[in-house]
């Protein structure tokens, strides 16, 4: 086995490793087609009703089991978004809005306004506050979002949620 003797090469290797590790998020921002951009921190999350989510099987796009998220609890995403005013005064056009939820790794998932405010899907879309009986803000996944009743849960499982961009379909 060869050892690395070049100090510059060692520096590059260790720098790459440290950049690959994402810093856990402690807050996320809701912005875009809203009247006022807001930032949601742990303090704001604790002001909402926390619900038991339970254990969710995390599956990939093929439906294959990739892991289990156990003993979870969280705040409904809808409860948080209800505090946000869309940049639209006529409710007739709310159906044209959607939310792009993005993690620090640039992974994105999308929910429509109707999905979150006009269907039962919204009753199981959470910002996770606790997983495996640990506070999520103490976990490397930071602020976590999950759509717990999706058939393929990994598709809308966002680690280190950083932003929710509110957009309008054109």
Tell me what you see in this structure.
The chain has 170 residues and is of the alpha+beta class. Helix content is 17%, strand content 39%. It contains four helices and eleven strands. It has helices at 7-20, 42-46, 77-81, 113-117; strands at residues 27-32, 38-41, 51-59, 65-76, 97-103, 108-112, 125-131, 134-135, 144-147, 157-158, 161-168. Strands 3, 4, 7, 8, 9 and 10 form a six-stranded antiparallel sheet that branches. Strand 7 and strand 8 form a beta hairpin. The longest helix has 14 residues, at 7-20.
- Counting DSSP H or I runs of 4 or more residues, the number of helices is 4
Total count of strands: 11
Run of helices and strands: HEEHEEHEEHEEEEE
What share of the residues does DSSP label as strand, in percent? 35-45%
Taking pLDDT < 50 over at least 5 consecutive residues as the criterion, the unreliable ranges are: 7-21
- Give the fraction of residues assigned to helices: 10-25%
Index terms:
single chain; 170 residues; alpha+beta
Task: Provide a quick synopsis of the model.
This protein has 170 residues and is α+β, with helices and mostly antiparallel strands.
């Amino acid at each position: 086995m060869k050892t690395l003797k070049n100090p510059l090469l060692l520096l590059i290797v260790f720098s790459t490793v440290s950049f690959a590790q994402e810093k856990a998020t402690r807050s996320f921002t809701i912005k875009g087609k809203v009247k006022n951009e807001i930032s949601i921190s742990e303090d704001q999350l604790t002001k909402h009703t926390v619900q038991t989510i339970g254990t969710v099987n995390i599956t990939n796009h093929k439906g294959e089991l990739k892991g289990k998220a156990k003993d979870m609890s969280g705040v409904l995403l809808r409860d948080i978004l209800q505090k946000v005013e869309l940049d639209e005064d006529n409710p007739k056009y709310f159906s044209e809005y959607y939310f792009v939820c993005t993690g620090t790794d640039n992974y994105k998932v999308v929910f429509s306004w109707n999905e979150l405010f006009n269907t039962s899907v919204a009753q199981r879309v959470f910002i996770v506050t606790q997983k495996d009986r640990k506070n999520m803000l103490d976990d490397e996944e930071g602020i976590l979002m999950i759509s717990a009743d999706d058939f393929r849960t990994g598709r809308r499982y966002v680690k280190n949620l950083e932003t929710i961009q509110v957009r309008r379909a054109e």
